[in-house]
Design goal:
The complex is a heterodimer of chains A (142) and B (137). With 142 residues, chain A is an alpha/beta fold. Chain A folds into 2 domains: 38 residues, no CATH class; 70 residues, no CATH class. Helices cover 22% and strands 22% of the residues of chain A. Chain A has 3 helices and 8 strands. Chain A has a 4-stranded mixed sheet with strand order 1-3-6-8, with no helix packed on it. In chain A, strands 5-2-4-7 form a 4-stranded parallel sheet, with no helix packed on it. In chain A, helix 1 packs antiparallel against helix 2. The longest helix of chain A has 14 residues. Chain A starts with 7 loop residues before the first helix and ends in a 21-residue tail after the last strand. The C terminus of chain A is likely disordered. Chain B is mainly beta and 137 residues long. The mean pLDDT of chain B is 90. Chain B has a domain of 83 residues. Classes of the chains: A alpha/beta (142), B mainly beta (137). At the A-B interface, strand 1 and strand 2 of A face strand 1 and strand 2 of B.
Chain lengths: 142, 137
């Protein structure tokens, strides 16, 4: 038995018997322990500690698909989404989405289709900024 | 497109009594390219290609980020390919990170997949971070 052989198996069986409600079975399992592993039964007989699960405190938002660019965020580049985008911050670049909602205090320049403070559907890919790139992009199927 | 200057983050945590900046959410349907700069929180569940500067960045378990991250707190639950410059780095068990993690404190959950160098840096390094170093192979 190499030193890297961990006796996880022993702990597993032990956990199972501890979880069981039959105390008679428990003694039987403990008696069988030395056959499985030469490790002394004393540490293995301890109630197995639950494996420390890393607590993920990533808050899952209700609607994970909706994107919110808050007023503190500035994006220089492109945005592309198959769902809705709400922009309260600053976007410098192209925005393509099913619907783009632009907050009142939003700043932006680029080829997105929006008007200040109004929700604008982006279906037609109208361009209000002069330099059009709309023809390069195929609209999303809705 | 002009490259915006690097937005340095504050070493000290924000005062909770001060006005909270609303967090930004990039949903899983969103793909962003370019430079993302914020003083507040940023949650990424979609795909981002580019440089991200934030106070606190959370990459959700379905998120993918390719590029450099500069933030005080970084929590990774998704896939990241690039470099992290952060005081506190937390890699959740679902994280998959390739690159470099410049950190002061790092926490890696069991099960996280990390293929990265993790150089430790003092807080003064992050304080004086005005330009990212050239990426090395």
């Amino acid at each position: 038995m190499s030193m890297f052989n961990r006796n996880d198996k022993v702990n597993d069986t032990n956990t199972g018997t501890n979880a069981g409600t039959n105390p008679g079975m428990n003694t039987g399992e403990t008696a069988r322990l030395p056959e499985i592993s030469p490790v002394p039964a004393a540490p293995a007989a301890k109630p197995a500690q639950p494996v420390a699960q890393p607590v993920s405190n990533i808050a899952a938002p209700r609607n994970i698909g909706v994107s919110v660019i808050s007023k503190a965020l500035k994006i220089t580049g492109q945005l592309e989404s198959t769902e809705d985008i709400r922009i309260d911050g600053e976007v410098e670049g192209d925005v393509r989405a099913v619907s783009v909602t632009v907050g009142k205090r939003c700043e932006g320049q680029g080829n997105g289709v929006w008007q200040r403070g109004r929700a604008v559907r982006n279906d037609r890919r109208q361009d209000r900024s002069g330099e059009s790139r709309a023809h390069q992009h195929r609209p999303y199927d809705r | 497109m002009t490259i915006p200057p690097l937005r340095a983050f504050r070493i000290t945590p924000r005062d909770p009594k001060s006005a909270e900046l609303p967090a930004s959410h990039l949903g899983q349907a969103l793909t962003a390219e370019g430079f993302l700069d914020t003083d507040g929180d940023l949650h990424i569940h979609g795909r981002v290609f580019g440089r991200v500067c934030a106070d606190r960045l959370v990459l959700g378990s379905g998120g993918y980020l390719e590029g450099d991250v500069v933030a005080r707190d970084v929590q990774i639950g998704g896939r990241l390919s690039g470099r992290i410059f952060a005081l506190n780095v937390t890699l959740d068990s679902s994280a998959d990170v390739t690159g470099r993690i410049f950190h002061h404190e790092v926490t890696i959950a069991k099960g996280a997949r990390v293929d990265a160098r993790m150089p430790w840096r003092p807080p003064s390094y992050f304080e004086s971070l005005t330009q990212l170093p050239e990426p090395r192979p």
